[in-house]
Amino acid sequence: MPRRALLTLTTAVSSLVVAVPVLAQDGLPILDVHLHADAADAQGPPPLGMCVPIQEFPAWDPAVPYGSIFMGMMKEPPCEDPVWSPETDDAVLAETLEVMERRNVFGVLSGSPDRVGRWMEAGPGRFTPALRFSLASSPVSPDSLRTLVESGTVEVLGEITNQYAGIAPDDERMEPYWALAEELDLPVAIHIGTGPPGVRYLGAEGYRGALHSALTLEPVLVKHPRLRVYVMHAGWPMLDDMLALLYAHPQVYVDVGVISFSSPNFLGYLRGLVDAGFGKRVMFGSDQMVWPGVIERAIDRVEGADFLSAEQKRDIFYNNAARFFRLSEEEIARHHGR
After folding, report:
1. Residue 305 belongs to domain with CATH number
2. Is residue 331 part of a domain?
3. Residue at 249 is within a domain
4. CA separation (Å) from 298 to 188, 195, 205, 293?
5. What's the mean per-residue pLDDT of the chain?
6. Which tens digit of pLDDT belongs to each residue from 259-299?
7. What predicted TM-score, i.e. pTM, was given to this entire model?
């Protein structure tokens, strides 16, 4: 081969090597701060198909029940490669653990103490226990919460799902819980943002779009400035409100939640958070409910964000959550296999 041709080929090969993306999380641990220990039928009769992302949300004619439209989208998903939910509780757990072990994921697991406990036994060292909480459907008294925290049964309060019942963060009934979380230095995860499309017509009659605003949390932060809290679903789609809250209250973090796999404009929303200067306070969260496969799909969407540097991806996948939860050097070393 002529020398000039050899140099040309060498240059081309070098360019190809340089162009190969470096995976920010390749072999490294991921902290998923938004997992659920749910039964297989928690979102409806399985199996249910989830398009990742959902390209178009339902258009509803009120002449027919909305539930039939919504479930039709899940039973006959309008995409070529949906993620299907397993049909049994055991399969949901087993498939979740398989993905987590293969992708080196550690997670904050929300649910009832009994179900969370069973998942922790099945995946020792894989989960941090959190308590799903709603004043409307799953209340626990402040005294009972204190006991759960002091016994080590609960390490995170959340997901707080009051939004589904139309209960704002500063509702007076929440005050004892905010005060207790601040006193105990208990991390809190609160749902502020999207639920299932049209959820008001699926039984959540108190649900209001106005409560998507992250600014609804501001009165709580002013009263409890030492509170450690992260906004699940990052206040989607009210980006400006989320940015205003992050700017005014530097102790607040977000997780990307369900929009990481469901929203067609997720990457644009994520870019809005990062471009505004808040890349150090965005945490990865898959919001895995009954679709274990969405964990990997969500990871891949963040990994494929070409506007993020390798360092920014590592921050989102691990470093920001390690800082927020104040992980010890020993815990970080364990996650890294050291």
Report:
1. 3.20.20.140
2. yes
3. yes
4. 22, 17, 29, 9
5. 93
6. 999 999 999 999 999 999 999 999 999 999 999 999 999 99
7. 0.91
